[in-house]
Amino acid sequence: MSLAVPVLFAIDVVVMVNYNKKVEWPSIWRLLPPTCFGVFLGSRLIGTLTSAQAKLLVGTIISGILLLNLWKEVQAYLARDTDKTGVSEVSDQKIVLPSLWLTATVGVVGGFATILTNSMGPLLNVYLLSMKLDPVVFVGTRGAFFTFVNVYKITQRMISGTLTPELIMTCVPLMVYAIVGVAVSSFIVKQFSKSVFMAMEYTLMSLAAFKLLRSGLQSA
After folding, report:
1. Of 38, 76, 95, 159, which has fewest CB within 10 angstroms of its CB?
2. What is the tens place of the pLDDT at every residue in 30-42?
3. Are the C-beta atoms of 138 and 197 separated by less than 8 Å?
4. pTM, whole model, 2 decimals?
Protein backbone atom coordinates (compact mmCIF):
# COMPACT_ATOMS: atom_id res chain seq x y z
CA MET A 1 0.00 0.00 0.00
CA SER A 2 2.91 2.34 0.70
CA LEU A 3 4.08 2.06 -2.92
CA ALA A 4 0.73 3.33 -4.17
CA VAL A 5 0.95 6.60 -2.23
CA PRO A 6 3.79 8.25 -4.25
CA VAL A 7 2.06 7.30 -7.53
CA LEU A 8 -1.26 8.70 -6.36
CA PHE A 9 0.51 11.80 -5.08
CA ALA A 10 2.11 12.41 -8.51
CA ILE A 11 -1.30 12.07 -10.17
CA ASP A 12 -2.96 14.47 -7.72
CA VAL A 13 -0.22 17.10 -8.06
CA VAL A 14 -0.49 17.09 -11.86
CA VAL A 15 -4.29 17.28 -11.66
CA MET A 16 -4.15 20.16 -9.16
CA VAL A 17 -1.72 22.13 -11.32
CA ASN A 18 -3.71 21.41 -14.47
CA TYR A 19 -7.06 22.39 -12.95
CA ASN A 20 -5.82 24.99 -10.46
CA LYS A 21 -8.23 27.70 -11.60
CA LYS A 22 -11.18 25.29 -11.42
CA VAL A 23 -10.64 24.03 -7.86
CA GLU A 24 -13.43 24.65 -5.35
CA TRP A 25 -11.00 25.74 -2.61
CA PRO A 26 -13.57 26.72 0.08
CA SER A 27 -14.88 23.15 0.11
CA ILE A 28 -11.35 21.81 0.57
CA TRP A 29 -10.73 24.08 3.56
CA ARG A 30 -14.01 22.86 5.11
CA LEU A 31 -13.13 19.19 4.66
CA LEU A 32 -9.43 19.20 5.54
CA PRO A 33 -9.70 19.73 9.35
CA PRO A 34 -11.95 16.70 10.03
CA THR A 35 -9.91 14.65 7.56
CA CYS A 36 -6.65 15.51 9.33
CA PHE A 37 -8.29 14.53 12.60
CA GLY A 38 -9.39 11.23 11.03
CA VAL A 39 -5.89 10.56 9.68
CA PHE A 40 -4.46 11.31 13.13
CA LEU A 41 -6.91 8.89 14.76
CA GLY A 42 -6.19 6.22 12.16
CA SER A 43 -2.45 6.57 12.72
CA ARG A 44 -2.84 6.18 16.47
CA LEU A 45 -5.50 3.49 16.52
CA ILE A 46 -4.19 1.08 13.88
CA GLY A 47 -5.09 -2.42 15.03
CA THR A 48 -8.28 -1.50 16.89
CA LEU A 49 -10.31 -1.56 13.67
CA THR A 50 -9.60 -4.27 11.11
CA SER A 51 -9.42 -3.67 7.37
CA ALA A 52 -12.69 -5.57 6.93
CA GLN A 53 -14.47 -3.40 9.51
CA ALA A 54 -13.11 -0.23 7.88
CA LYS A 55 -14.40 -1.37 4.48
CA LEU A 56 -17.81 -2.13 5.93
CA LEU A 57 -17.93 1.28 7.60
CA VAL A 58 -16.89 3.19 4.46
CA GLY A 59 -19.17 1.10 2.22
CA THR A 60 -22.14 1.73 4.52
CA ILE A 61 -21.55 5.49 4.63
CA ILE A 62 -21.11 5.68 0.84
CA SER A 63 -24.39 3.78 0.40
CA GLY A 64 -26.10 6.14 2.82
CA ILE A 65 -24.87 9.26 1.02
CA LEU A 66 -25.84 7.80 -2.36
CA LEU A 67 -29.36 7.11 -1.09
CA LEU A 68 -29.57 10.62 0.39
CA ASN A 69 -28.43 12.15 -2.91
CA LEU A 70 -30.96 10.01 -4.80
CA TRP A 71 -33.74 11.21 -2.52
CA LYS A 72 -32.70 14.83 -3.08
CA GLU A 73 -32.68 14.26 -6.86
CA VAL A 74 -36.19 12.80 -6.70
CA GLN A 75 -37.38 15.79 -4.67
CA ALA A 76 -35.74 18.21 -7.12
CA TYR A 77 -37.34 16.40 -10.06
CA LEU A 78 -40.77 16.58 -8.45
CA ALA A 79 -40.23 20.27 -7.69
CA ARG A 80 -39.30 20.98 -11.31
CA ASP A 81 -42.34 19.08 -12.47
CA THR A 82 -44.66 21.29 -10.42
CA ASP A 83 -42.75 24.57 -10.90
CA LYS A 84 -44.03 26.23 -14.05
CA THR A 85 -41.66 29.20 -13.81
CA GLY A 86 -38.49 27.14 -14.31
CA VAL A 87 -36.75 28.75 -11.33
CA SER A 88 -35.55 25.38 -10.06
CA GLU A 89 -33.56 24.86 -13.27
CA VAL A 90 -31.35 27.81 -12.39
CA SER A 91 -30.73 26.58 -8.86
CA ASP A 92 -29.29 23.31 -10.24
CA GLN A 93 -26.32 25.27 -11.57
CA LYS A 94 -25.27 26.47 -8.11
CA ILE A 95 -22.78 24.65 -5.90
CA VAL A 96 -24.60 22.90 -3.08
CA LEU A 97 -22.52 22.90 0.11
CA PRO A 98 -23.00 19.71 2.16
CA SER A 99 -24.09 20.06 5.77
CA LEU A 100 -21.48 20.36 8.50
CA TRP A 101 -22.39 16.95 9.94
CA LEU A 102 -21.88 15.28 6.56
CA THR A 103 -18.58 17.12 6.07
CA ALA A 104 -17.40 16.06 9.52
CA THR A 105 -18.46 12.44 8.98
CA VAL A 106 -16.83 12.12 5.57
CA GLY A 107 -13.66 13.82 6.82
CA VAL A 108 -13.17 11.81 10.01
CA VAL A 109 -14.20 8.42 8.59
CA GLY A 110 -12.39 9.06 5.30
CA GLY A 111 -9.19 10.11 7.05
CA PHE A 112 -9.37 7.04 9.25
CA ALA A 113 -10.09 4.75 6.28
CA THR A 114 -7.32 6.16 4.09
CA ILE A 115 -4.77 5.03 6.68
CA LEU A 116 -6.23 1.53 7.09
CA THR A 117 -7.45 0.64 3.59
CA ASN A 118 -6.59 3.58 1.30
CA SER A 119 -10.31 3.76 0.48
CA MET A 120 -11.22 7.41 0.97
CA GLY A 121 -11.53 8.00 -2.79
CA PRO A 122 -15.11 6.69 -3.24
CA LEU A 123 -16.20 8.47 -0.06
CA LEU A 124 -14.83 11.79 -1.30
CA ASN A 125 -16.40 11.23 -4.71
CA VAL A 126 -19.94 10.87 -3.35
CA TYR A 127 -19.32 13.91 -1.13
CA LEU A 128 -18.33 15.97 -4.18
CA LEU A 129 -21.23 14.56 -6.20
CA SER A 130 -23.63 15.95 -3.60
CA MET A 131 -22.25 19.41 -4.45
CA LYS A 132 -23.28 19.12 -8.12
CA LEU A 133 -19.90 20.31 -9.42
CA ASP A 134 -19.04 20.58 -13.09
CA PRO A 135 -16.73 17.74 -14.27
CA VAL A 136 -13.54 19.84 -14.43
CA VAL A 137 -14.26 21.40 -11.01
CA PHE A 138 -14.96 17.95 -9.58
CA VAL A 139 -11.68 16.50 -10.89
CA GLY A 140 -9.61 19.53 -9.90
CA THR A 141 -11.05 19.71 -6.39
CA ARG A 142 -10.52 15.99 -5.86
CA GLY A 143 -6.91 16.17 -7.02
CA ALA A 144 -6.12 19.22 -4.89
CA PHE A 145 -7.67 17.67 -1.79
CA PHE A 146 -5.76 14.41 -2.09
CA THR A 147 -2.52 16.30 -2.74
CA PHE A 148 -2.72 17.64 0.82
CA VAL A 149 -3.77 14.28 2.27
CA ASN A 150 -0.99 12.37 0.50
CA VAL A 151 1.68 14.84 1.64
CA TYR A 152 0.80 13.84 5.19
CA LYS A 153 0.68 10.13 4.34
CA ILE A 154 4.06 10.19 2.57
CA THR A 155 5.65 12.08 5.47
CA GLN A 156 4.16 9.65 7.99
CA ARG A 157 5.29 6.56 6.08
CA MET A 158 8.81 7.91 5.61
CA ILE A 159 9.07 8.65 9.33
CA SER A 160 7.79 5.17 10.20
CA GLY A 161 10.17 3.56 7.70
CA THR A 162 7.51 1.87 5.59
CA LEU A 163 8.35 4.17 2.66
CA THR A 164 12.01 4.80 1.79
CA PRO A 165 13.71 6.85 -0.96
CA GLU A 166 14.65 3.56 -2.63
CA LEU A 167 11.02 2.46 -2.75
CA ILE A 168 9.99 5.83 -4.14
CA MET A 169 12.53 5.46 -6.95
CA THR A 170 10.99 2.13 -7.93
CA CYS A 171 7.69 3.99 -8.41
CA VAL A 172 9.12 6.50 -10.91
CA PRO A 173 8.18 4.48 -14.06
CA LEU A 174 4.63 4.09 -12.73
CA MET A 175 4.49 7.83 -11.99
CA VAL A 176 5.42 8.61 -15.60
CA TYR A 177 2.66 6.36 -16.96
CA ALA A 178 0.21 7.85 -14.47
CA ILE A 179 1.04 11.41 -15.50
CA VAL A 180 0.55 10.51 -19.18
CA GLY A 181 -2.81 9.03 -18.20
CA VAL A 182 -3.79 12.29 -16.49
CA ALA A 183 -2.91 14.26 -19.63
CA VAL A 184 -5.12 12.01 -21.74
CA SER A 185 -7.98 12.00 -19.23
CA SER A 186 -7.98 15.80 -18.96
CA PHE A 187 -9.05 15.96 -22.60
CA ILE A 188 -11.69 13.25 -22.13
CA VAL A 189 -13.24 14.86 -19.02
CA LYS A 190 -13.88 18.10 -20.91
CA GLN A 191 -16.00 16.21 -23.44
CA PHE A 192 -18.55 15.06 -20.87
CA SER A 193 -21.63 17.06 -20.03
CA LYS A 194 -22.39 17.55 -16.35
CA SER A 195 -25.36 15.16 -16.41
CA VAL A 196 -23.46 12.36 -18.16
CA PHE A 197 -20.45 12.77 -15.85
CA MET A 198 -22.63 12.62 -12.73
CA ALA A 199 -24.49 9.56 -14.01
CA MET A 200 -21.21 7.77 -14.65
CA GLU A 201 -19.85 8.71 -11.22
CA TYR A 202 -23.02 7.58 -9.45
CA THR A 203 -22.79 4.23 -11.24
CA LEU A 204 -19.11 3.78 -10.39
CA MET A 205 -19.59 4.80 -6.76
CA SER A 206 -22.52 2.41 -6.37
CA LEU A 207 -20.26 -0.37 -7.63
CA ALA A 208 -17.47 0.79 -5.31
CA ALA A 209 -19.81 0.72 -2.31
CA PHE A 210 -20.98 -2.79 -3.25
CA LYS A 211 -17.38 -3.97 -3.65
CA LEU A 212 -16.34 -2.53 -0.26
CA LEU A 213 -19.32 -4.11 1.50
CA ARG A 214 -18.77 -7.48 -0.16
CA SER A 215 -15.04 -7.45 0.58
CA GLY A 216 -15.69 -6.42 4.17
CA LEU A 217 -18.26 -9.17 4.71
CA GLN A 218 -16.06 -11.83 3.10
CA SER A 219 -13.08 -10.83 5.24
CA ALA A 220 -15.03 -10.50 8.49
Report:
1. 159
2. 999 999 898 888 8
3. yes
4. 0.80
